[in-house]
Specification:
The complex is a heterotrimer. Chain A is mainly α. Chain A contains 9 helices and 3 strands; from the N terminus they run ααααβαβαβααα. A 3-stranded parallel β-sheet of chain A has the order 1-2-3. The chains are: A mainly alpha, B alpha+beta, C alpha/beta.
Amino acid sequence: MEVERRSLREKQVDARAMLRGDLEGEDLERYVEERVVTTTFEKVQNWARSNSIFPLTFGLACCAIEAPISIVTARYDLARFGAEALRASPRQADLIILSGRVSIKMAPVVRRLYDQMLEPKWVMAMGACSSSAGMFANYAVVQGADKFMPVDMYVPGCPPRPEAVLYGFTKLQRQIQGNPDQGWRQRYDAYGTEEWARGGPRSEPTPEAAEAYREARELTLA
Amino acid sequence: MTEQVVERDREIMTVNVGPHHPATHGVLRLVVDLEGERVRELRPVIGYVHTGIEKSCEDKSYWKVIPFVERMDYVSYFFQMEAYCGAVERLIDLEIPPRAKYLRTIFLELNRIHSHLVWLGTTALDLGAISMLWYCFRERDKILDLFEMATGQRMHTRYFQVGGVIEDIPLGFEAKCRRFAEEMPIRVGQYEALLDRNEVFLQRTKGVGAVSRERLLELGVSGPLLRAAGEPWDLRKAFDYLAYPEVDFKIPVGTVGDNYDRYRVRVAEMVESSRIVSQCLDALPDGPFIADDRKYVLPPRSELSTSMESLIHHFKLVTEGYRVDPGEVYYSIESPRGELGCFVLADGSAKPARVHFRDPSFVNLQAFRDMAVDTYVADMIASLGMLDPILGGVDR
Amino acid sequence: MPDAPGLELIRGEIERDCPSAVLATSFDRSQAALIVDPEKVLDVLRWLKEQPGQRYDFLSSLHAADYLPAEPRFAVHYELINRDRVERVRVKAMLADPGNEELPEIDSCVDLFPTAEAQEREVFDFFGIVFRGHPNLTRILLPDDYVGWPQRRDFPVGGEPVTFTYSERRYD
């Protein structure tokens, strides 16, 4: 269909008329065809989530200088992807970047931080250490953070360049938009693990919640 | 009635800070006893990034240990390499060529600037001067560009080898490095202009966290913390190593030993370091960049296709490594945080029997109690920033 | 560093004040070391710290090493600096393994050098060497409930073997 080009001013007048309910008949049809895209609610939700990620200000070791600090500074600037607002509290954060090696002493703390984050939440294992323990095959390091928590994205490198982290970040955005969890949560049985303050719901999901989660996921995948 | 009020004033509340806390610069946990807003007792709990590097080193041949030790104190990786390579060179009695000495000095001093920039950016951020982070990391990226140009990696470069450095600097490095060294003092002046008239910064650093020189010496503290208290103790001057005896530089020393002095000393060190870099570039001698002892040093790649002997040496070095006669060496250098010592014990095999690092952050952290007790809890955060511990080095 | 004759002089002077405290000296790779009786290590350290004209008053590092299979097995090293003469000397106390899961013991030097507090805890943590008189001898880097002394030579490095396609465990 031929769409004639109109000035911004005319479009604004039309929009105002539609909101008032003045636009009717063929004018309204044309307006809707021009201006409105229909989609599912889940897709819009995921699109919004992917572009407003709040990472946790959390550093473990070497990678901490590259990932939470360096990527927000001027040269790399995570703000371009809508994620410059680092949150110091896990309860306000969506994304935890495991930037460094996870020792046996730190693993319970990391897991607790993950549990304190509210759904939806994502985990990025940055660097070789948190992905697979890298070179540190010894008594003190957990051999890969995915041993005790679900990981959505692995960024290789020792440490990865900030560009690599940004690439992993855009990959994560795509994953959130398309296929939010790739089945990791099911495999680890790790949904509904949020830790609540006193009086909140118990930490394991009710059967209904698990069912609702499964349905929502299938809808998103469809 | 009055008694009750007194009682309430004396109430002690124990607060846990960390291990996940944005102001602890890593995974340090502090158990703090507060009386109102005053810190009355303080116990650092460490070990949350204990990586077992010293144990892993016992399982690797000598030249494979280098990447491990770099990952201890992850901000000053060149210093870790120098401490370890220097210790092994003393074990096998290997003299490094003069060009390697100068190149090592250049990279060490660039790394010192880098380390102080990371410190300045994050500490000023804790004190509310957020723009410092952006300025400091701009210069830090320039240093990392230099590292990348010469070594191929931004961090953890594995550039130093036993016997010298792994590769000569590329074309254009010298000019770029010289430009940086000329520019850096100007940048430092700009930082000072931002911070030295910042009333909030001054109020929060001047007269806060002062510890006397005698106490610091008792606690084994070294580096800028000790120099800020007025003790001119710098291993670069005290023990001659690398090219330091041949360059002219000063040791900045503070007077009071409070947080402001610590800041001044480190900022002045950045200027001195860029002077050292300039001088080393001027005096950079020609010649080989790595020692010529085929028993310990890999032969150049070009020889492998022509010389059978080189091929054998290469094979021996890469598969088994070299054996070191039994003995032990403690070698220490001045890292950005103080005395960084490396103890290597050789038992005659191709693997070290023990590699121990005396990390300055680990020892300096003991002074934190003296710095923070009886100050406000906000000043405790400022003191921790000025202490500049790198938790990877503390825990190893 | 004191040179080899200087080290012998120091040894002779210590011998006068605390007899039979120094068992041997070693001067290897231009590093001077006094090997002392572990029961008298505090006397030697105090002498080196307080004797006029010596003043090795800065303990730069305290660490341990495991010399397995040699006997005695453990050694605690004290790296001392004299900051006036810019000299280092290493004091080395060799400790035998008592066996039967008992831990070797040595006197703590925290009163003499407060800096040793964390470093002695670290040695205890990794080697299981007990420092008598230490104010708070607990694990410092490893979790409190950890079992074993990981830096000993007979402790396995640990970790996992790397799996490749041919050695991977199959999940059904």
